[in-house]
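We emphasize that the prediction below concerns an isolated chain of 109 residues; any contacts that depend on oligomerization or on bound cofactors are therefore not represented. The input was used exactly as deposited, without trimming of termini.
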Amino acid sequence: MNRTEFIVATAVILFIAFCLGWFTYWLVHRFTRVSKYDIGELEKMAQELHDAEESRDEAITYMQQRERELSNQLHQTEAELRAAMDGLREARHEAEELRSYVERINHAG
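Result of the prediction step, given as a token string:
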């Protein structure tokens, strides 16, 4: 193999290596390329996720507010119940005192 054949063989090998590299790059780029449709879908999904997060935050805020309102209402109802029970206890005590007073007057008279 003389010098010219060696240069031609080397050039052919380098050209084939270049072609294989370029083809590999094109193949990888072709399979990893993101289409405009995919980008649009990703943006749509991101917007829907953002909207869902806002809705979740609003729901959490509403539930916390409603929980506070119901808790306050429960405490108020419990206080009213305690007051009613105290009043009932006093009324029973007064009724018992009146009953015993009436019995004493009836036995005395």
